[in-house]
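dumping this here before i forget
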Amino acid sequence: MFDVLIHTMPLSVCGVLTIEMGLSLLKKRDRALCWLALWSATATVLYLCHMLYFEHITAAFPISDIVYVVCNLAVYPLYLIYLSELTQPKPLSKRRTELSLLLGIPLLGGVVAAALYGLMSQEDIQQFIEGYLYHGGIPDGATRVVRAQCLWHNVCRVLFAIGVVVVMTAGLRLIRHYNHMVTLFYADAEDRQMHSVYWALLLLVVTSLASVAVNFMGRYFFVDTIWLAVPSFAFSFLLLFLGWTGLQTTYSIKDILPADSAGASSGEEEATLSPAVIKRNQQLQERLQAFMDEERLYLQTDIKLDDVAHRLGTNRTYLLAMLSQQLQMSFSEYINRQRIAYAEQLMATHPELSKTEVSLQSGYASPASFYRNYKLYKTKPEA
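structure:
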């Protein structure tokens, strides 16, 4: 009974997550969630193949092995495509070359494996299953096609390891860039940044290293042994965490940039500052500071770059460029420095106010957000 639980736990987790994502998509169409659901469905099929393998249901071979090769090579690229939907104005799904490469390699892996199976006799298939899949070596007296199938499976292991490294590196870079973009356009950036997705990806990095090791060790190492419980429970927890964070993520790049701004500026579009640009930035800075001093717009909770640009009668590209080039800071940093300066003045003139009252009067939605920014931008040492 315990063996069955170990063999089916990741499959069950993925299956439940896929159903939950499907129900969510019925309520609201979302491209990022579509890719996450495809990732979850692929992982479900992958762990179904694992279950068939560990339960010794060899009658399902070679079909399940071909499907396993495809899904094993596809699951990490699919998660990267999902991340790009959340973080990039022009995601990987809309870039034909990259998408073809990410999905073409898994398909190629399956096609070659299927072609080799097609060339194998029943005796060859049984020899490959028993000799390679369950014992990890090239069987004695193996035919050329069996040796070719063994070699191809080893190539797929290498491709899997390369894919893990690429996805982890690119995924972390995408999330960091997105979190930086949030600070450019929102004063209150914390709740919009992908902290949970970032930590989920870091957890995925750690687990992926184990995944690569397990992949090179071979599944046969865990056949009929209690040690299978370790990767089974670890991957079940990881899959649950990834799926849960995906379902809970409500913000994405489309909430920051208009749909038609795939090449939107991040405030650094003018590498060389001409005298005209410098003069424009200085004038805009003076107008912005005068406006902040008079209107104290920074006291408004959840103020956005677009709101300030509209009130100044300019566009957000110019305002973002000025903040980056003239002040060397993001919009979030600029507004929060204004808030903390006001909070320090408030605490000096009204010492009877509690920190919670100061935080609310300074434009923060919560004391926790105030404390985080106070530590970063306070100008006076605490008594």
